């Protein structure tokens, strides 16, 4: 395909060698990025239960062959039909049913994009040229161009080409729109480009109508015929993701700051939400839009929040909709996506599982903090998603096994229920909604469900090591800048592994973006590289002997993006307050990430400025980038209320310039520079005021507990957010420990208690999670945030052992942090 040729040519030819940019702080040398845990993924096993991997590429190709066979005969065949009604275009197109076996012919214009258009995209991702395909009943057909039939009179892509008005709910319009955009990326043409740009323009106007820079997506949908949002019995605010991503892709394709602004407005709406906006499937692209805006546009969006939203079943807009875990009978369902409560149990959906991978996997290109979490999730999902297919579960555990028209088992069930409705002995049960709710279909085998199987078919490949997959990070990263082949590998084992990769005939360097390390230079053919236990590598095949450089937070090779190091500056983008300002140089100039703006005080001493971190954080260092008017004498102070301040650093010999100041870590929400003597005759002036946390060794790591309740699992304590927590069962004692992954020196722990705290507890360390050594004990715990130091010790595991509760309730911890000496 065109995209593949572009990538190959780029790798072979290289691009112009860049100038060497100033590195981001701490970038010099090999700088591994700390992995960030995702709450749901933390609950999954490293190694899938009953692991088995089907050939996903072949399964997707079989789907395409079965569905796009216009000459097939037999029960429920042919599946695809030609459509000569010429809806929205002058040439013949095609139509597919949503499920196998419609009870009556699909009405003209009634075909759904989530089945037909998605099937074209799925085939393309599996490597089939859907712009020039030959099969049974046709030759040289451009199925990609045929999807223009879904471009309706209102100037948008709709789910049904025969829709009279575009008054549909958000997700039924935006998911097909993103699908069409993917096809235009793979098969660009003047006609496809025109449809995409017109659709982007229509959605830009809708965003403006809904508030522009203060856009509000709290509606059911948008009526493009009436130019007005639709109110209904629910809202789908995750539409901000679909609309925002469309605008960003339009910006990358066509240029125009209007598109970029609309993408940022949409993401700002999401950034300001406190609750999960998820409804159906659009949230799967939230982390990708956030990470691309961060990496490519210098944004500071909360990717972790978006990641957790994609998986956590806590959205008020679609309660219980998220990642499925555990087993249905003897079959593991970890990693699949769907409902965690339907007729008394989980209901995993095929389409949602494939769609989630399309949006989430490329995130590892733009933010390597999530490489391990994405790799672990995909290992479970790719192993267990095979169970959607009839040949992977027992005949007694499915409801359409009688159909013999699919000998290759290419068309999956719509989903997997925890058990058959009314028969608890059938676990799991491969099924769907048509037969359950008497819809006009004869089977529960989903065309729309298998349409995106090519996502797995294009992304997932096995390697020489069982359970270590190669995940293609470029495959669904539509409208990206020039890029080299990039792959994610996750090692689920407790020991390091050596993995083979075929890098091709042209010499390349093998670069690992997670560790910012060139593993091999000027190599070709099959090569081997090592991955440490329970860790991930993002492997990029860069031009041989390329020049690595740093630009802001980006890592570049021959001026092409290969990796990203997010700012660890806790003050970035936060609000600042000052004793005075002058000349329009306001307090927030110190947190905007640029020296183009600054804070300038009024005359006289003392003067001060503080940053509000938004919530209490563990802080251990500050960087002050002074303008010429610096402080000779000043203090750094911290506070939890902006009223009572504690000194953490004092000097009477400030030098100005860039001052990096470290101090004993402390819990604080506010950090203040309090100037008592100026170093010049002028006022105080600061370009940037940066605040950093010491490295939390527990961040993103595995956690285990004596018990859990109410779905508040152990992994909630290592994901860096108070939106999740661990909650024990009742009774004493209870414990929770963090696995740091390897033994290392530790000397401090921070426990952020929920209201249910421990009055009596111990901190213990271990190297085997069996024999424990006490390093701290108290019988008068206070709850809140407890910052505990102890004599440094070498340990892999750190445990809170609760002996007495401080309330009538169980034990509950928001975050459990561990630090070095």
Q: What is the straight-line distance between the termini?
A: 54 Å
Percent of residues in β-strands: 25-35%
Shape, per Cα inertia axes: globular
Query: Percent range for helical residues?
Result: 10-25%
The largest sheet is: 7 strands, antiparallel
- The protein's oligomeric status is single chain
The number of domains is 4
User: SS-based structural class?
Assistant: alpha+beta
Mean pLDDT, to the nearest integer, reads 91
Mind telling me the CATH class of the largest domain? Mainly Alpha
The whole-angstrom Rg is 28 Å
CATH architecture call of the largest domain: Alpha/alpha barrel
Task: Give the CATH topology of the largest domain.
Answer: Glycosyltransferase
Runs with pLDDT <50, length 5+?
1-30
Beta-strand segment tally: 38
**Count of discrete alpha- or pi-helical segments spanning 4 or more residues:** 17
Keyword list:
single chain; Immunoglobulin-like; 38 strands; disordered N terminus; alpha+beta; 821 residues; 29% strand
Question: How would you concisely characterize the structure shown here?
Answer:
By secondary structure, this protein is of the alpha+beta class. Helices cover 21% and strands 29% of the residues.
Produce the secondary structure layout:
Elements: H1 2-13, H2 39-42, H3 56-67, E1 81-83, E2 93-95, H4 116-125, E3 133-135, E4 138-141, H5 143-146, H6 170-186, H7 190-209, E5 221-223, E6 228-230, H8 239-254, H9 257-271, H10 286-297, H11 303-311, E7 321-323, E8 327-328, E9 331-332, E10 337-342, E11 345-349, H12 350-360, H13 363-366, H14 371-384, E12 415-417, E13 429-431, H15 433-437, H16 447-450, H17 453-459, E14 460-462, E15 469-472, E16 486-491, E17 497-502, E18 508-512, E19 517-523, E20 526-531, E21 535-543, E22 548-551, E23 554-557, E24 560-564, E25 575-578, E26 599-600, E27 607-626, E28 631-639, E29 646-651, E30 658-678, E31 685-692, E32 702-705, E33 726-727, E34 734-753, E35 758-766, E36 773-778, E37 785-805, E38 812-819
Helix pairs in contact: 3-4, 3-17, 4-6, 4-17, 6-7, 6-8, 7-8, 7-9, 8-9, 10-11, 12-17
């Amino acid at each position: 395909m065109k995209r593949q040729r572009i990538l190959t040519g780029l790798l072979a030819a290289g691009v112009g060698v860049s100038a060497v940019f100033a590195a981001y702080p701490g970038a010099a040398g090999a700088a591994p990025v700390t992995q960030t845990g995702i709450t749901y993924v933390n609950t999954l096993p490293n190694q899938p239960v009953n692991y088995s991997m089907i050939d996903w590429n072949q399964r997707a190709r079989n789907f395409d062959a079965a569905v796009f066979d216009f000459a097939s005969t037999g029960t429920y065949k042919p599946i695809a039909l030609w459509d000569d009604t010429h809806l929205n275009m002058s040439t013949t197109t095609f139509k597919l049913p949503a499920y196998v076996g419609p009870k009556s012919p699909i009405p003209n214009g009634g075909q759904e994009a989530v089945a037909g258009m998605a099937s074209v995209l799925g085939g393309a991702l599996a490597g089939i040229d859907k712009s020039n395909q030959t099969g049974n009943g046709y030759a040289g057909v451009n199925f990609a161009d045929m999807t223009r039939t879904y471009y309706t009179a209102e100037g948008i892509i709709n789910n049904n080409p025969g829709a009279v008005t575009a008054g549909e709910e958000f997700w039924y319009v935006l998911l097909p729109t993103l699908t069409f955009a993917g096809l235009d990326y793979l098969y660009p043409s003047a006609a496809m480009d025109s449809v995409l740009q017109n659709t982007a323009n229509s959605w830009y106007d809708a965003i403006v109508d809904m508030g522009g820079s203060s856009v509000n997506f709290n509606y059911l949908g948008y009526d493009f015929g009436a130019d007005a949002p639709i109110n209904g019995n629910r809202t789908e605010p995750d539409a901000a993701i679909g609309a925002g991503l469309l605008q960003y892709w339009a910006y990358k394709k066509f240029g125009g700051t209007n598109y970029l602004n609309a993408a940022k407005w949409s993401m700002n709406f999401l950034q300001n939400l406190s609750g999960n906006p998820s409804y159906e499937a659009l949230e799967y692209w939230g982390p990708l839009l956030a990470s691309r805006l961060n990496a490519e546009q210098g944004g500071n969006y909360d990717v972790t929040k978006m990641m957790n939203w994609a998986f956590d079943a806590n959205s008020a807009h679609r309660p219980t909709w998220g990642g499925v875990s555990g087993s249905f009978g003897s079959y593991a369902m970890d990693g699949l996506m769907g409902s965690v409560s339907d007729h008394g149990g989980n209901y995993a959906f095929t389409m949602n599982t494939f769609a989630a991978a399309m949006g989430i996997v490329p995130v590892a290109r733009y933010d390597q903090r999530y490489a391990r979490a994405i790799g672990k999730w995909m290992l479970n999902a790719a192993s267990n998603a095979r169970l959607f297919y009839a040949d992977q579960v027992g005949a007694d555990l499915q409801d359409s096994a009688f159909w013999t028209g699919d000998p290759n088992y290419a068309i999956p069930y719509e989903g997997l229920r925890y058990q058959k409705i009314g028969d608890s002995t059938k676990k799991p049960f491969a099924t769907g909604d048509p037969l359950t709710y008497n819809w006009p279909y004869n089977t529960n085998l989903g065309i729309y469900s298998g349409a995106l199987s090519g996502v797995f078919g294009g992304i997932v490949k096995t390697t020489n090591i069982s359970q270590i997959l190669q995940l293609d990070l470029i495959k669904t990263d539509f409208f990206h800048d020039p890029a080299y082949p990039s792959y994610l590998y996750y090692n689920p084992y407790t020991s390091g592994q050596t993995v083979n990769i075929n890098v091709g005939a042209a010499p390349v360097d093998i670069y690992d973006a997670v560790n910012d390390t060139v593993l091999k230079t000027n190599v070709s053919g099959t090569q081997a590289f090592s991955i440490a236990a329970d860790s991930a590598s993002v492997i990029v095949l860069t031009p041989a002997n390329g020049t690595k450089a740093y630009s802001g937070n980006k890592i570049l090779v021959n001026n092409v993006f290969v990796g990203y190091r997010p700012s660890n500056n806790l003050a970035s983008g936060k609000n600042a307050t000052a004793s005075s300002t002058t000349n329009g140089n306001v307090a927030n100039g110190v947190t905007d990430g640029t020296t183009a703006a600054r804070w300038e005080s009024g005359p006289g001493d003392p003067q001060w400025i503080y940053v509000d971190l938004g919530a209490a954080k563990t802080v251990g260092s500050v960087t002050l980038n002074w303008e010429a008017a610096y402080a000779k004498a000043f203090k750094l102070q911290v506070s939890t209320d902006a009223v009572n301040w504690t000194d953490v650093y004092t000097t009477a010999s400030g030098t100005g310039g860039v001052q990096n100041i470290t101090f004993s870590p402390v819990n604080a929400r506010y950090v203040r520079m309090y100037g008592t003597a100026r170093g010049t005759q002028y006022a105080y002036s600061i370009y940037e005021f940066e605040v950093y946390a010491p490295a939390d060794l527990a961040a993103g790591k595995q956690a285990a507990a004596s018990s859990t309740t109410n779905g508040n699992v152990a992994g909630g304590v290592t994901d860096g957010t108070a939106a999740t927590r661990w909650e024990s069962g009742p009774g004493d004692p209870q414990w929770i420990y963090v696995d740091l992954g390897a033994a290392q020196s530790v000397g401090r722990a921070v426990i952020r208690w929920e209201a249910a705290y421990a009055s009596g507890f111990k901190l213990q360390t271990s190297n085997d999670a069996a024999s424990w050594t006490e390093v701290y004990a108290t019988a008068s715990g206070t709850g809140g945030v407890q910052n505990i130091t102890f004599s440094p010790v070498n340990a892999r595991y750190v445990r809170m052992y609760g002996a007495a509760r401080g309330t009538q309730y169980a034990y509950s911890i928001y975050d459990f942090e561990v630090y070095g000496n």
